Each structure stands twice: as structure tokens, then as C-alpha cells.
Amino acid sequence: MAIVKASLLRKEVLLIWAGLTPILVIAGPFGTYDKSILIQSALFWGLVIGLSILFVTMLRVLAAQIVPGRSEARRVAFVTGGMFLLMTPIVIALDASIFGVRPEVPRIVMSVALVSAALGALRLFLHRTGAIPATVMILSEEASVPAPVPPPPVAAPRLLARLACGDAHILALSARSHYVTVRTNHGPETVLLRFSDALEELEGLDGLRIHRSHWVARAAVRHADMGPQKATVRLTDGTVLPVSRTYRDSVEAAGFPPAP
User: Fold this and answer.
1) Per residue in 93-115, is it b (16+ CB within 10 Å) or e — as a string?
2) CA separation, residue 53 to residues 154, 172, 234 (Å)
3) Euclidean distance between CA atoms 260 and 180, whole angstroms
4) CA-to-CA distance for 94 and 72, rounded, in angstroms?
5) How far apart are CA 247 and CA 260, in angstroms?
6) 98 with 85: CB under 8 angstroms?
7) Tell me, what's the pLDDT at 235?
């Protein structure tokens, strides 16, 4: 139903409803000019036009799914017949409830049939001539909801530019004096850099600090051993790093698999 919703909210569809309603109020077809006041007529035609747009939209979506082949004539016939069957009892009920008089059923049936057939013929004519039926085709079977825009690619962490292998996957960082050991899937490398600066150059890589001197990528943690006296994490490369008391709660909240 996303296609139906998207089509009904199009600006041109709303303009059709807003434009046709006052025209039909003034013209007064179906005998509404002789038996109504302005408010009644506006309510009647506002509902009739609105429901017609809704049903046409739904029927065109349904026709695109169940009518075999690419025959536009068959789809127009399906929509035309569906509109007649749906709108005839609705128009009769609205005529009786809004105007408070006994509806002229044969006249309404004939009028709905003629209008449905005329709109269907116009839709088919415009399709065959290549014109765009802006006032009739509420939804084309080729219409679709715009595809979501994919998120922009995530930039590689700047820290990779300092490594010999620039396409490596960072597993962990460990501080040692004025150096940082960067553990990757290609092995460890040591760079001259402050630990705080190295963390900034990770560019939002998903991970967490587990110690004053250690940071790990979430995807690199094989399991965590949260013992009562000593806590550690084991990485996918086999490295075991300590977890300090300060960061114990955040490591436990990360939900890493427990040590076997």
C-alpha cells in the first residue's frame, strides 16, 4: 500500500480533488443542483471525488498485478468496471444521507455508468496517443515509491594512512610511552603518536576503550573473561588485553561472548 499512499499524496492529485469539487458543486450533476444548499453539495462532491480518487488508485495498482500481459485496454476495463461497482452504492447512500430525500436510483446508476465509461475511454485514448492523462490517470502501474537514498560511504580512519598496509582492518590500539601499537588483521605496527590522537584518528570506528592504554574494535573481540579478580578480552588474532576497573562496566554492557 506504500505506492497507493505515495500516489494519493502527490500535489497534482490533491489539486484534482480541490479543483473538481467546486466545479461539480456549481455544475450540480446527478440532480444535486436542484435539491441542495451549498454546504450539502460541497460535502457530497468532496466525498464522491475523494473516494473516486482513492478507488481508482487502488484499482490501478490491483490491475497492474492481476491483469495478464501489458494490455492497457484490459486494465482500463478492469478499473472502469470496478469503479462502477464500488461507486454506485456509495453515491446512492451519500445522496440519501446528505440530501435527506429518496434517491433516484435508476438515474444514479446510469450516471455513474456513463461517467465511469467516459473516464475509461479517455484514459485509453490518452494512453494510445502518448499523452499524459493528468486528470484521469491517478496512478500508473509503472509508478513506484522512490528508492531510499543509500547512506554515503564511511571514510576510512585517518590512522590507516600511518600504517604500511593502508587497507588493513584495525583490531586494537595499545599505548606504550610515546608510541601506539596498532593491531590489524595483517599484524601489529608501531607508530609515533599520542594515544589520544590515535583515538581521534579512528574516525568513529565502532569500538570501546577497555583500559587507560587499550582500545578494541567490537568486531575484533572473540570473547571476554570477566573474572572477579581479573578481567580480559581475547581478540580474533589471539591477543589478550586487560580490562581495568574503570572500564569494566562498559565492557560488560557491550555484551561480548563469555570466555569458554
Assistant:
1) ebbeebbeeebeeeebeebbbeb
2) 43, 59, 62
3) 30
4) 32
5) 22
6) no
7) 96
The rounded distance, in Å, linking the Cα atoms of 165 and 126 is 62
Is 210's pLDDT higher than 70? yes
Decide: helix, strand or coil at residue 163. coil
What's the CA gap between 188 and 181, in Å, rounded?
A: 6
The C-alpha atoms of residue 211 and residue 215 are separated, in whole angstroms, by: 7
Cβ–Cβ under 8 Å, residues 182 and 189 = yes
Q: What pLDDT score does 191 carry?
A: 95
Distance CA 123, CA 73 (A): 9
Q: CA 88 to CA 97: how far, in whole Å?
A: 14
194 and 178 in contact (C-beta within 8 Å)? yes
More reliable by pLDDT, 2 or 21: 21
How far is the C-alpha of 188 from the C-alpha of 183, rounded, in Å? 4
Q: For residue 27, is pLDDT > 70?
A: no
